[in-house]
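Duplicate of earlier report; serine-type D-Ala-D-Ala carboxypeptidase input re-posted below.
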Amino acid sequence: MLKKLFLLSLVAAAGMLIAGCQEKAQPDDRLKEYVDLWNDKKFEEMYDTYLSSSAKETYKKEDVVKRTNDIYDDLAVKDLKVKFKKPKEEKEYDKEKEAEFPVTISMNTLAGEVSYEETVTLKQQEKDDEENWFVEWDPSFILPDMEEGDKVGIESLPAKRGEIYDRNENPLAINGEAFQIGIVPGEFNESDLKKLSSLLEMSPEAIQKELDQSWVKPEYFVPIKKIPITERPLALDIIELPGLYSKRVDARQYPYGEATAHITGYLGKINAEKLEKLKDKGYTAQSLLGISGAEEVYEDKLRGQSGQRIYLTKVNGEETPVAEQEVKDGENISLTLDAEMQKKLYDQMKDEVGTAAAVDPKTGEALALVSVPSYDPNEFALGMAGDKYDKIYNDPDKPLRNRFYQTYSPGSAMKAITASVGLKSGKLDPNKTFDIKGKRWQKDESWGGYQVVRVFANDSVVDLESGLKYSDNIYFARVGLEMGAETFIKGLKDFGFGEEIPMSYPIQKSQISNDGKISKEIQLADSAFGQGEVLMSVVHLASAYGGIINDGTMMKPVILKGEEQGVWKKDLLTPEQSQLMRTDLRKVVSEGIAGKAQVPGKEIAGKTGTAEIKSEQGTKGKENGWFVSYDQKNPEFILAMMLEGVEDRGGSTHTVQVAQKFYSNY
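Output:
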């Protein structure tokens, strides 16, 4: 019995010894645990486990957890970092007193970085029959200097969008004003709805839809439509109606309207799909961005960076700044375009369907890029009614289509390139003649029923000069066959076929064929005179002719002023071969089929082309007419023009006549 009592005494003594050796909870260890949770944004666990009873009495869970999460979401807080350095030396803390420790809090917000120091106070209290240290929570743990009752404010400071100018500082896209027309429903007479519909060119249903929005009240101003600031007489007519008002608002303006629409594009509201892609770049559901053209291509330059300000509004109404990101206005850009030249070219082409590009052969600068029919970018920027947009979108002539971006079959405009490839390769002797009789030809019976057809049969002995002057398909088909597919393909690649067009404004790349190969003789023959599967953009075609007349040096096409100019392709021809081509291209106009391009005082040279779009030989289909030209007396630009649907208007001769009128008036 004594032995058992002795053993029990030893166990009890050992238990007391162990209890005596256990370390007491320390506030710095406790704070480290709290800070770890803080960095992980585990605010609920922080509140439940670590807040003192007094803190919980003062601040309800919703005041701490939900509010912190909501504020951090609104401020787009990222990279939250709370740092606490434990004291190097151990210290005995008085449980009757509070323990205080400095912490550093930093975070990235939508208004930039926020970094500050705070003091965290812990005090000891008993919980669940155990003593521990608990945090005295404070609103300043959310944001610096934050106190109970403070409201968090966010102010957006919009950046001024950069403007777009031409080479002569003529405005293409600028920040201006418009009239915002609106209705105060309580004052509006519904009998005027039909008249208002006519004045605004909006359907009555579209107007009524705006008035039926859930937020509308009788005394509110309900925006209906923006109209250009130049339409002041219209605005005055509208506000004569009871309940109609107008006010001036900021608006993007496009002074050259339809003439430059496909170059400038327009500014519009961001849609849900683009917002999802761009939300990390600071775009919101209210953002405007470039929808097409230069507004879209150079969005990053033009947009700038809006500023943001985060502040606290105190109970007494005073504001205390938290963070501010400065506004960075967008960059103004200048294009190489000559807006007045662009307008004259557009005015000459506006009743057509087609495209044109004027490119300086010495610098590669694009001086004019026209796509017709066009649209008014001002209407899009101000907000177009759905029914009017549908009418434009469904127009069979596709005014929204940017035709100078696209590629087309070049037809006989290709022949100058084929000739250049042959001359440079040494496989085309310009003096060699082919004996060609009649309008149809095939190499042999292996071609079956397929024949190459030429327009004129006046020459039976055809050399390069004659082949170009009279656009002889048979001559160029035979040149292509003698050259061979390998040489022809290599030569076209030397001219940039199959490559991305080295221009900051995107243009579709040209192709030799759908798969980049030419595997059959008929395809080679067709490709040599611009049919087959050869496709080119009007920009590339103008650049290529620039290389032909510029002693074999083709410059990179440039549209953004200040971009580095440079050679795209060189040694396409020798200077002597270039001179030969210049002579022959002039004769196409002075002696050949483009005689209607003659302009008094100018020496127009160039090459016509008719691209036939049809399902099979022997049928009649749509024709696109080409004319690539320049003035040999003053070769400041190559003008490549393509007009669609010329089959009943004289073919490419119609395009020649439109170009001639431009030269006459320029």
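The longest strand covers residues 112-127.

Merging into the original ticket.
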